[in-house]
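Bench notes, bay 3.
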Amino acid sequence: MNYQQYTQNQKISQITEDTLVVGIDVGKNKHAARAFNYRGIEFNEVLYFDNNDYGFKSLRKWFLNIAGIHGKKEVIIGLEPTGHYWLPLHEFLDGNGFKVVTVNPHHVKKSKELDDNNPTKCDKKDAKVIAKLLPEGRYSEPNIPVEIYAEIRVAYNHRERIIKDLNRVKNSIIRWLDIYFPEFQKVYKNWESKSALLILKNTPFPHEVVENTSEEIVDIWRDNGIKRGVGSKKANKLKSVAKNTIGVTTGHEMAREQIKHLLIQYELLIKQKDEIEEKIIEIMKEIPGAMEMVTIKGIGEMTVAGFIAECGELFDYQHPKQIIKLAGLNLQEHSSGKYKGETRITKRGRSRLRALLFRVSLPLVRHNKEFNQLHKYYTTRSKNPLKKKQSLIAICCKLIRVLYALGTKEVEYDGEKMLNDIKRPKDYQQVA
């Protein structure tokens, strides 16, 4: 992977008199490109090209022709990463050996009025704004995962979509129960158990439960290999609540079809989820340091997979601070003169990575002894104690550092070493 981190001065110095600067505004079906020198003087008219092979080749021919006419030896191309539409164009240009960088959409939005003091937005204008940001060093090199890292990102994204669909189906089943058999969940706190699903498949309505004897209900479970936790006592309890149901008694014919289809979808999505998670674990075994990260108590394989899917190859980062910034967990300050505002996280970065880390911080603090001690220290220290949520954010940042160390050094988690590496005042041990 040709991904590198540069300071802004290094970014600026990469664009010289011999560099042709191309800005491209990306759309779904058509893109717009404009070409400039390093001082912002434009060459030629704007080029509109289609999002296909012919359009990409016409773009390459266009800027190579401009570079030849004006004696430019290098070409740098800036894109605004609009949704997913920029990925094929990036792969084409990068595969042909051209330097492709991305600009932050927030920067484009903030700087588009500098030239004409006009909030107008159009493809032609945006392409110019993107190009003007490059000589100022306001760009970044996209960290596009390749090989095994591309595989795990695609697999994890697919798992996320499956879980989203699964949650939708689960909510629909709960809604169905609330309408037609609200008492069902008094007997089954977990409607996803095997015995509960069998009842929903065979006798989903209260009147059907009442019509069957306890022995017939028990036979449904026994015939499907369920012998533990079910019996006449469970069947009688189910019949008892069914007799006094407040469930809706109309529309049962189509309601039966509805629950049938929902249960089919539910079982299919569960199967797909299990299959993709097995494949993710197999992929993780090939990634250096991945299985070492799982040795942290309170961290599971899917959490580590999500972390790698969002970050890519950890060796591409010189310091874990870069991942903290990628997650939008770096701090911002609002102060002016005597006024000093509250310090907050920027939330500028990968929201899914930030959400993943925050979600895992809760069980991590609960089940991991060392992170629990760290959380207690952050919230009870004598100087600058943190609120609980602030402490969890600090835990997220610490977790990034730990995962980075385990992944790059390929060593297993050592809780005592983690605590010993933290610089803290003398009162830490008393609080912990």
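Next record in the batch:
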Amino acid sequence: MELIAPALATTELTQAEIAAFNENGYHFHGKLFSDEEIDALRAACERVCQGIYETGSPPDWAGWKPGDDLLEVRKFDNCWKADRTIAAAVLSPRLGHIAAQLISAPSIQLWHDQFLHKPPFGGKVITYHQDWAYWQAIDICKTVTCWIALDDVRPDSGPMVFLKGSNKLGLFPLPKGISGDDVQAPVMPPNVHCPAVPVIIPAGHVSFHHGLTLHGSDRNTSPITRRAMVSHVMSGECKYRLGQNHGNIDTMKTYPIYPKPGEHFCGPQFPKIYP
């Protein structure tokens, strides 16, 4: 089933919204996906979790399989390759148009997607981190994470938490481990305070955050599931650089077309989203 319903909220941003994103490091949008689309996405993600791939191709990485602990977080990368419903969501021009405005990009490409499933009374602490810190193969931080809520997010269901304004503080060291039992609080510069802002949004709504925004989440202590389909995107201006390893780079080299160091990202691994 392909996602064909029209957007429920406009994708045109005001200058005030763009300025607030640059200042705060995040943007909460309205409902971009209908209830029917979210139902279809939930079903598609469950199929992928069960190893059922509509296209015949698996995701690039699967962090859970049937029979594994039901209280563990389920995390899958590049599910768009496995299911057309997921592809329609993470490659949606709705997301691309908003991201392009937020980072003043002439075009938007997918870096990779992620399905995140935090079960009731389960999961681990996701300590504070910056997405771009793990993506140093991208030469400039013109990246945005588009976080599609598949469930209503509650304060006790392990919501993502942004540190407001942390996008203006530069690159922080990587935490020792991203998923564990304790929060590794980032060491802030003297006299800098970044208030914690939880992402409490309904299903179908989307939050956007800058690649340098510090964010993390706690365990899910509620009786409900917290699921999200995430589209990590980048400006068409971004180029591939050598250095930090990433599974996405390993996979891109399995295709006949991919960028050489210093070239713009190209090839099947990085589909264009907008325009």
